[in-house]
Design a protein that fits this description.
The protein is mainly alpha-helical and about 150 residues long. The chain is about 65% helix and about 0% strand.
Length: about 150
C-alpha cells in the first residue's frame, strides 16, 4: 500500500475507495469495503485467518493498477517483473518532479554533453554537496515556520 499512497498524494486509499475502484473496474459489485478491511487485517467474517479466492486477489491487484492481477500475489517471478516496473514508474515520477526545477534542467542540459568520466565526477560532487548540506541542516535546524 506504500506505493499506492505515494501515487495518491501520500495517502493510502480508504477501504471504501478501493472497493469502489474495483467494483467500477469490474462493472459490478465484486468486493466490499469490509472484505478489503478484513483481508488487510488478516481476518475473515468469523474472525479467522483469511484465505481469499484467486478471483478476489485478481481484483485486488487490478484495483491497485496491477494488470497481472492475482498472479502478482501468487507468482514470484511475475511479482518481480511488476515490482521492477513500479520502481521505474517511481523513478520517472521523481524525475518529473526534478524537471520542474529550472536549475536541475539547466544542469541536465549541460551534463548531457559531458564524457562518462566527467559525469562520474559530477555525480560524486553532487553526493558530497548533499552530505555537506545534510550535516549543515543537522547543526542548524530551521524553525518550522521558515520551511
Amino acid at each position: 500500500m506504500t506505493r499506492e499512497a505515494a501515487r495518491s498524494g501520500g495517502r493510502t486509499p480508504a477501504y471504501r475507495e478501493l472497493a469502489e475502484r474495483i467494483n467500477r473496474l469490474a462493472g459490478r459489485d465484486v468486493i466490499s469495503r469490509d472484505t478489503i478491511r478484513n483481508l488487510h487485517l488478516g481476518l475473515n467474517q468469523k474472525g479467522l485467518a483469511s484465505n481469499p479466492t484467486v478471483e478476489t486477489l485478481d481484483w485486488l491487484g487490478r484495483g491497485f493498477g496491477i494488470n497481472a492481477g492475482a498472479s502478482y500475489f501468487l507468482d514470484d517471478a511475475k511479482a518481480a517483473v511488476v515490482d521492477e516496473q513500479l520502481e521505474q514508474l517511481e523513478k520517472i515520477g521523481e524525475l518529473r518532479q526534478a524537471l520542474g526545477n529550472d536549475g536541475v534542467v539547466s544542469l541536465l542540459q549541460r551534463a548531457s554533453t559531458l564524457s562518462n568520466g566527467s559525469l562520474r565526477v559530477l555525480l560524486a560532487l553532487a553526493d558530497s554537496l548533499g552530505q555537506v548540506e545534510e550535516r549543515a541542516a543537522e547543526r542548524n535546524p530551521r524553525p518550522a515556520d521558515e520551511t
